[in-house]
Amino acid sequence: MATDIQTIAQLLEATIDPRQHKQAEDALKNEETKAGFSLLLLNIVASDNFIPNTRLSAALCFKNFIKFNWVEEDGAHKLPENEVATIKKELIGLMISVPASLQVQLGESISIIAESDFWTRWDTLVDDLVSRLTPDNAKVNLGILDVAHSIFKRWRPLFASDDLYTEINHVLEKFGPAFVQLLEGTDRQIEANKNNRDALKQWTEVMNSLVKVFFDLSCQDLPPIFEENLAYVTSLLHKYLTFNNPLLATDDDAESGPLEFVKAGICQAMTLYMQKYEDAFGSLCQPFITSAWELLTTIGPETKYDILVSKALQFLTAVASIPKHAQNFNNQDILGQVVEKVILPNVSLRESDIEQFEDEPIEYIRRDLEGSDADTRRRAATDFLRKLLENFEGLVTQVVGQYITRYLQDFTSKGDWKSKDTATYLFSAIAAKGAVTAHGIKTTNTLLNIVEFFQNNIAGDLLAETGVEPIIKVDAIKFLYTFRRQLTKEQWSAAFPPLVKNLASSNYVVYTYASIAVERVLFLTDDSGRHIFGKEDVAPFAKDLLEHLFQLIERDPAPEKLQENEFLMRCVMRVLIVIKDGVAPLTDILLQHLIRITDIIRANPSNPRFYYYHFEAMGALVRYSAPLQPEKLENDLYTPFAAILQNDVQEFQPYVFQLFAALLEARPEGPLSDYYKTLVAPVLMPQLWVQGNVPGLARLLSSIIPRGAAEIVSSNQVEPILGIFQNLLSKKSTEIYGFDILEAVITSLPVAAIEQYFPTILQLIFNRLTGNAPVRFKQRFVRFYMLVASLDQTGFGADFFIKNCDQVQDGAFIQLYPAVVLPTIQELVRPLDRKLAVIGLTKTLTDSEAFAVKYAKGWAKTCEALLKLLENPPLPVAADDFVTEADVDDVSFGVGFTPLNTCKKQQKDDWPDVTDVKPWVGSYLKAADQRKGGAIGTFVSERLTPEAKSVLMSYMR
């Protein structure tokens, strides 16, 4: 049983104190292993006897405990069933009874549990939620709806399936009627409390949650209960789209109130209904179109309305996507009104935009970049305009073109730089079709001349060193960034130097946007896949460019400020990738800066994007410089990397393991240095092998084993290494990494050091094979068998495998080989795996006594498998020189393991001397036949079909 509640509470309080944090965390980790720990945490959360911070720490601890300890990889519960049942029984009631700060954590915990258990293993959850809804308690209803939303929102991105629809129908059957009833009741409560500020605000928040859940329940298919009541439900939602009450208004122009969120949510839900259910909703949509238009033409420029304006614009974009509704806009006068009253007010710069540009430059950049500004007015207005352009290209180009000309004339005559900003933005909006991809805009408006507009209106701003407003300078850089694909190499050769020159600007946004554009241009390729700017173009000025970028990054040495601007570090990474081995003369300078940055940010890793690009830059340096000066990089990088491990900087550890491995792989021969020898023991510690570390650690250990084989054997470390293999093999998510380590052991250590463990290794693999193993596991096993079969010269070989296989179970091999090995051989995809299979099969035919004597039929089947492989022989693998980094905007980025692509592991070729397999097979069979007095020829004659015999003999001639 877990320790008493007071002790747990004291440990939770200690985690808040920086002086005791680490020790308290370790003590809590120990308590986690004891039965009932989770229930003690819930008791602390529930008790008013503890201070709020302790209760909040308990709620956070409970959420994290559930996250990592609720289910095994196969879905089975880790906790005792009575503890699971108690948690499910008490959690909902507890969540709705505690303060809001605790509700958030417990609600997330419920969502985590529901992820694995709902609905089949928690079929009482919806009943429990419905039974707690009340007609008059807004706080309770809000808690219930927030839990429901956290569970149901999982459906939004999912593909349709029978299981998904079964789950949704289960919810609708129980929750649907209660939802409609609560919607009616909430409407009555809002009316009844229209003069009571606090109650009105609470019930409006309930309405906001109802709108979210309405979207969740509708996201896959139109629920029957909504279809039956669609006129009533939509009329009620329309009421709140046009609802106003001064008591709900906020005094702060930047703070959205509950009513803004309700209206924005209604627009989002109606966008869904317009896109998916127009056949049912089409006749009911006109009031929403009218009201959305009225909102957009009357609402103020305050930032608190941004979310509502963007959602209303997205609704009109959905309307314009449907031909019969889009025709309402097919008129020059109407389009003029749309541009005048809706587009221009929402794409023009506001004072709040200029303030953010000056006061929060990094936030301005992130919001302004394509894809990062989904809910801004500019982005939503642009999407609406582009949808109209898609339908009526000529008319929209003509109407908007008139405004562009007018605004450019205003700039020329009055010097109004804001007019030029609007003109440039409008031109980009109608010139570009679709989103900006990794290579820029793919298709453009053929009615516009982009290069001409750039030369006449933009180029001067890019070149000017003074007299240009910073925002106009950014517009010029962003124009190049957006239309980078439309410029030729010759045009870029003229535009690139002034673009780089803007890195010297004193304005944060200007030099950051310059770094963004430079990085994307260096990434740009032509139609053949060749980079527009290669090593020979960039190397001459790379040193000055990198020095300047590092100067900008290191301007403020505070950890959180230094790593604030990931765009600068991404540019550093890209330059290193482009100049390849041109980094060698710059190694000292690069190490100096990269190590200094590492030492600073490890104290407080706060920006995952920045340190990802930082370690990719280190990876590029290791990849291109370590083969030329391995000792220098090993010596210089060991100290900062060791400090990361010693100080348990968990965010950096997976990257460090990969870089340590890459350094070793750069010099695969020779003994381990003393630095690496000191790493072996820590790497073998089981507690280090947590999920996020496994891929990097497996790669590192697989790199250490070949270089440190003698020390591993003499230090009795073979067994601990195989223990790690066993642990990795026990989980689906890590089993492949187990094979990586096992193959390193087989290819590096002498047979005598492994032989005693081999039956156990096979037993572990066989256990997994008999348990519905996935295809990739079978393929790795077959690759492992082929590796063993091919290594007969070191004492392994097919007979070694067969002998140990039959020690596990008599006759096991004769069952395994035809059932698993032979069918899976042809499924191998990677050329080096297929090549290894060719060699393993050939050596099985020539050197296995068991196949020669006992398995005559197996010999023939093996030969047939070999001939089939040779029909499509593996080709030599070309060097992989293309580097793509991770997508840092992907929702899964930073969760678990992120591979470094600049120094990714190259697949090992166990037989590099065999380059063309067909002649190798023929010569090897011929030599074996001579060595064995014609035995191979006899087997061919006696065991093969005439067709197979003919093909094989053609190789042996």
Describe the structure.
With 957 residues, this protein is mostly helical. The protein is 69% helix and 0% strand. A two-stranded antiparallel ribbon has the order 1-2. Helix 24 (450-463) packs antiparallel against helix 25. The mean pLDDT is 93.
**How are the strands ordered across the major sheet?**
1-2
User: What is the helix content?
Assistant: 55-70%
- Secondary-structure class: mainly alpha
**What is the radius of gyration?**
33 Å
The main pleated sheet reads as: 2 strands, antiparallel
- On the 0-100 scale, what is the average pLDDT? 93
Shape: globular
Q: What is the count of helical runs?
A: 50
Poorly predicted spans = none
Query: Number of DSSP strands?
Result: 2
Proportion of residues in extended strands = under 5%
Calculate the terminal CA-CA distance, rounded to whole Å. 75 Å
What's this, in brief?
The chain is mostly helical. The protein is globular and about 100 Å long.
How is the topology of this model organized?
Blueprint: H1 5-16, H2 21-32, H3 37-46, H4 52-69, H5 81-97, H6 100-117, H7 125-132, H8 138-152, H9 162-192, H10 197-218, H11 224-228, H12 230-241, H13 258-276, H14 278-281, H15 286-298, H16 306-320, H17 323-326, H18 332-347, H19 351-359, H20 361-368, H21 377-391, H22 393-414, H23 417-431, E1 432-433, E2 443-444, H24 450-463, H25 470-482, H26 489-501, H27 508-523, H28 535-553, H29 559-562, H30 566-579, H31 587-601, H32 608-625, H33 630-646, H34 653-666, H35 674-683, H36 694-707, H37 709-714, H38 718-729, H39 735-748, H40 751-754, H41 758-769, H42 775-790, H43 798-808, H44 812-825, H45 831-847, H46 849-853, H47 856-871, H48 917-931, H49 935-943, H50 946-956
Antiparallel strand pairs: 1-2
